[in-house]
Amino acid sequence: MEEIPKSHPRYASLITRERISQAMNEGLVHETGLIAHGRGEAYDYLIGEKTIPPADNAEKVAAASLLLAKKPVISLNGNAVALAAKECIRLADAIPAKLEINLFHRSNDRIKKIIKEMKKQGAKYVYGTKSDACIPGLNYNRSICDKDGIYSADVILVPLEDGDRCRALRNMGKKVIVIDLNPISRSSKTASITIVDNIIRAIPNILKWINTFKNEDNIILENLEKNWDNNKMLKEVLSFISKRLNSLF
Ligand code: ATP
Predict the structure, then answer these.
(1) What is the model's pLDDT at position 102?
(2) Less Cβ crowding at N or C end of the chain, within 10 Å?
(3) What is the pairing mode between strands 193-195 and 175-179?
């Protein structure tokens, strides 16, 4: 791998690309994961590659929801593990929440590799291999999950989810928190709470809010959830992007 000089103006973005590409070579990320990453990068460019106020707000409400949940689960795919494995483990420990691997291009080999990587990074138990339940309304491979994990969860945090699965989980009555840099994707429009931020910044910021709220009264957290308007927030994101683009030149 060619050394990227720290002085390079796009150093952080290039290092992230290297991580994704390396994870693909190790069999953790599917090749289409690189394309999804590219789409994410494009939207990250539009928001200025930082956590914008509507995203910080969504991360705050997501933390409240995760703390109020009875059975919270963090659902992970190859890209999420390549970019934020340790951060997801820290978040799961703090809530506490279960971790489950769920892949768009499902293969037992990749699930095993990802779980091995998560354990190497410090995860105690990772769901995703029992495959003893199905999410209604999806084709078989997309629907498989663990009964004690995603299937029975009340709140699910899914970084980088696809629209169909997000809809199917909502149809099961679950609260779905999505991290997606694309504010106009189907997942973003379907989720209960959409976090338009890079997973690399979003997970540590949700953890920061979890720590802030750890001893907070449930009524305060419930009010945050109750007053959340996801469509209003998505409009704020689009307005932020449009203002930013108009002020560039
Ligand atoms: P949908 O099915 O919801 O309409 P899609 O077809 O774009 O969306 P995918 O192809 O599964 O769904 O794409 C995954 C999404 O993940 C993309 O919208 C992309 O913006 C987003 N994404 C990629 N990398 C990151 C990242 N590092 N952080 C946050 N979001 C990301």
Answers:
(1) 92
(2) C
(3) parallel
Q: Of 231, 227, 225, 230, whose CA–CA distance to 69 is shortest?
A: 225
Contact 95, 210 (CB under 8 A): yes
Q: What is the pLDDT of residues 165-186, one digit of tens each?
A: 999 999 999 999 999 999 999 9
pLDDT, tens digit (0-9, with 9 covering 90-100), for 113-131: 999 999 999 999 999 999 9
CA distance 154 to 54: 24
CA 222-67-114 angle, to 5 degrees, is 140
Cα 94 to ligand 1 centre (Å): 26
Question: Cα of 216 to ligand 1 centre, how many Å?
Answer: 33
- The secondary structure of residue 197, as a DSSP letter, is S
Q: Which two tokens stand for residue 96?
A: 């506490």
Instruction: Provide the whole-model pTM.
Output: 0.96
Nearest residue (by CA) to ligand 1, atom 10, is 36
